C-alpha cells in the first residue's frame, strides 16, 4: 500500500467537538459506508445482469478486415456482404439467440486490429471473429483470440505460420495458405521447364512465408532459386527491384506479394518487358478483383493456384450471382471463404448446443465441409481446413467473354497434396 488509504480513513475533527475515537466511527459514517457499499453492489449486479442478458440474447460475429487500404477491393465491405449471405442461408437465430454482425477496419495495422478485437471480446460481447486479411494482422488477432479462448475464422490471411508455429486451438485457416498456393504452382512451373527462379517479395509476414514455401517447393521439384529481393509494403515504384530481376539468370519471376503491391509490380514488369523477354511470370497469390483491374493484356499466360473461382461449377456460379447482386462484382476466394466458414461455424454451434469454443471447434472438426466452396473439406487439429486447390492460368484476351471471365482451370490439386502435411508445421498443440 502507498499510504493514501490510511490518510483517507483519518477522521476529521468537527468544529466545537473533542477529538473522536478513531476506533469508533460515528453512526452516520457507518450508515453512509453501508449505503455506498450496497449501491455499488447493486450497480455491479445490474451491470452483470445486463451483460448476461446481452450475451444470452445475441450471438455477435465480428468481421475485421481492410476497408480502406490495398486489400479493400478483394476483402473489405465485400467480406461483410459475404457474412450476411451466410446469415441468409443459415437463418437469423441460433440456440434462441439473434445473430448480429459487427465490422471494423483494421487499417492493415496489427496493433489497431488487436485493440479492436480485445474491445469486441471483452466489452462488446462478440463471440467469434472472422476474416482478418493481412498475415501480420491475423497473427496479432490470433494471439488475442488464443488468450481469450475465442474462435477466429481466418479467410484473407495466408501465412502458413497461422497453422504452424503460431497455431491456435481455437482458429481455423479456411481459404488458402502460402504453402498450398506456392506448392502447387511451383511444381507445375518447374515441370514445364521453369527451373530457375527469382522472387520479388513483400517485406512482411505474408511475403516471407510465400517465398519460403515456394522456394522449398522449387527445390523439391528439382529447380533452384537464383535470387530474391524484398520490397516495402505499399511501395508505388518497383523499378529498382525489377532491374534486379532483369539482371538475374532466372527464367521465372515469382511475385510473392498481393493486393496493389502485386498489381503495381506486374504492371511495371510488363512495361519493363520482362514477360516479352521469355521469362515466365508466376503469381504466387492473386485476387480476382486485382486481376480484373489489371486486365488480361498484362496477365495472360501467367500461372497461379487458387482455392475458389466463381465459374468453377453451378454451385459457385449460383453463389456468385447472389454476391454480384449485392456488390456489382464477382466474389474473391477470400469473400467466398467468409460465407463458407461462418456457415460451418453456425451449424457447429447448433450441433454442439452451445457457443463454448472447445465444443464448437470439436463439432467443426467432426463435420465435413460440403458446400459451394469445398467438397469433402475437413478441419484438422492444427486449424487447417483442407480442401482441393486449383491450378489456373490467365486466359488470352481473345478467349475471354467479359470483365470477370479471366481464369482457365488446368488441374485440380487434391487437398492432401496441396496443403502441408499435419506433422510438418510445428503446431505446438498437435501430437503426431
UniProtKB/TrEMBL annotation:
<comment type="similarity">
    <text>Belongs to the leucine-binding protein family.</text>
</comment>
<keyword id="KW-0029">Amino-acid transport</keyword>
<dbReference type="InterPro" id="IPR028081">
    <property type="entry name" value="Leu-bd"/>
</dbReference>
<dbReference type="InterPro" id="IPR028082">
    <property type="entry name" value="Peripla_BP_I"/>
</dbReference>
<keyword id="KW-0732">Signal</keyword>
<dbReference type="InterPro" id="IPR051010">
    <property type="entry name" value="BCAA_transport"/>
</dbReference>
<feature type="domain" description="Leucine-binding protein">
    <location>
        <begin position="58"/>
        <end position="395"/>
    </location>
</feature>
<keyword id="KW-0813">Transport</keyword>
<protein>
    <recommendedName>
        <fullName>Leucine-binding protein domain-containing protein</fullName>
    </recommendedName>
</protein>
<feature type="region of interest" description="Disordered">
    <location>
        <begin position="1"/>
        <end position="22"/>
    </location>
</feature>
<feature type="compositionally biased region" description="Basic residues">
    <location>
        <begin position="1"/>
        <end position="15"/>
    </location>
</feature>
<dbReference type="Pfam" id="PF13458">
    <property type="entry name" value="Peripla_BP_6"/>
</dbReference>
